[in-house]
Amino acid sequence: MELTDLTDSQRELLEVLKDSIVAIDDARAKETAEEVIAAGIDPNTAIKTAIANAAIEVWKKFDDGDYFLPHLVMAGDVMDEVGAILEKSIPVEQVEKKKIIVIATVEADMHSVGKNLVSTMLRAAGFEVHDMGVDVSSLTIIQKAKEVKADMIALSSLLTTTMPYMREIVDDLKSMGIRDDYKVMIGGGPVSRSFGEEIGADGYGSDAIEAVDEAKKLLFS
C-alpha cells in the first residue's frame, strides 16, 4: 500500500501517529497505532512513514537543541512500542526478515549521544539493532555480530585517539577470515568518509539521517 492509495482520513491518522511519537506521548501513540490497524492501513506503510518521519523530526529537534538525550531515549522507546503494535498485525507470510545491525562506540570512548540517535533512527527505519553501548572492544563487537548473525557492524568514535580502534575491528575481521561477512559503517565527530576508505570500511554517516541512508544502500543494493 502506497501513501497515494490512502484516504484523507487515513493519511491524517498517520500524521497523528507521527506527531504523538514526536511529542513523546506514549499513551496517545499506542492508541493511535491501534486506530491505524482498525482503519485498514498497511502496518508496513505506517512503519515506513509515520515512525520513520517521526524519527527524522526527533533528530531535528535534538539537532536544534530543543531535545536532549533523555528525549531521544524516550522517543526511541515510544517508537519501539508503536512498532511492536503494528508488527503484530502483519501476516506471517508478509513479515520481511529484518537486516541486523550491531552498533557500538569503540573501545576507550565513552560518548553515546550520537550512537544512541543512530540506533533510534535505524530501528525506526526497520532494522533490527543490537546496541552494545560504549567503550566496547573489537573482539566483543565481533563476537556479538557472530552471535546475532549480523549483516552490519556500525561503529562510533568521538575522539581522535579512539579512531584507530575502528581500523582494529576491520583488521580483526580480515585476520579472522570473516571480513566479507559484514558491512562496516563508521561515524562520529572526527571521523570522515576518507578515513573510512583508508581503513577499509564500507560506509560512513556524517549524521543519523545519512547513516540510515547509507545502511539502506549497503544492505539493500
Question: Mind sketching the topology for me?
Answer:
Elements: H1 8-22, H2 26-38, H3 43-63, H4 69-87, E1 100-105, H5 113-124, E2 128-131, H6 138-148, E3 152-156, H7 164-175, E4 183-187, H8 193-199, E5 203-205, H9 208-220
Parallel strand pairs: 1-2, 1-3, 3-4, 4-5
Helix pairs in contact: 1-2, 1-3, 2-4, 3-4, 3-5, 4-5, 5-9, 6-7
Can you describe this structure in just a few lines?
With about 220 residues, this protein is of the alpha/beta class. It contains nine helices and five strands; from the N terminus they run ααααβαβαβαβαβα.
Describe the structure.
The two termini are 22 Å apart. This protein is α/β, with parallel strands linked by helices. It has a 5-stranded parallel sheet with strand order 2-1-3-4-5, sandwiched between helices. The mean pLDDT is 92. The radius of gyration is 18 Å and the shape is globular. Helix 8 links the parallel strand 4 and strand 5.
